[in-house]
Amino acid sequence: MSTPETSRFVRLRVEIVLEIDDADAVTRAALDRIGDDADMPADERAHAEGAVTEDTAEALAYLVDPFDLVSEVPGVELAQASWSSEPIDYDPDSPDWGADEDDADEDDEEGARG
């Protein structure tokens, strides 16, 4: 009896919707993080500061680190991460909210059959 070979790599998809009650606090925190990054070149720093000042979603992307989500999980090492943020129209009562979850379930079933 043979067992199917499984990958050591797992893609974890997470979607989080956050409500921003204090955009200035988010921007200040992002500017502080950028200011504390001694390894960031000056031209990149200027670009980052402009981006987080103009866009709260961009500021939030500087503050959320996928490594923090898994750093305490035993037996795993973050191999690669990418993330983005964008303002959205959010209505938790909308029947359209969560539609992506159905698509993800279909992908999981196809992967299990494949």
H/E element sequence: HHHHH
Q: Report mean pLDDT, rounded to a whole number.
A: 84
| Helix coverage percent | 40-55%
Q: What integer value in Å does the Rg equal? A: 19 Å
CA-CA gap between termini:
19 Å
Count of strand segments: 0
Shape: flat
Mind describing the biggest β-sheet?
Answer: none
Low-confidence stretches: 104-114
Which structural class best describes the helix and strand composition? mainly alpha
Instruction: Please give the count of helices.
Output: 5
In percent, how much strand structure appears in the residues?
Answer: under 5%
Topology, element by element:
Blueprint: H1 23-36, H2 42-54, H3 56-63, H4 66-70, H5 99-113
Helix pairs in contact: 1-2, 1-3, 2-3
What does this structure look like?
It is a single chain. With 114 residues, the protein is mainly alpha-helical. It is 48% helix and 0% strand. The protein has helices at 23-36, 42-54, 56-63, 66-70, 99-113. The longest helix has 15 residues, at 99-113. The relative contact order is 0.11. The model is unreliable at 104-114 (pLDDT under 50).
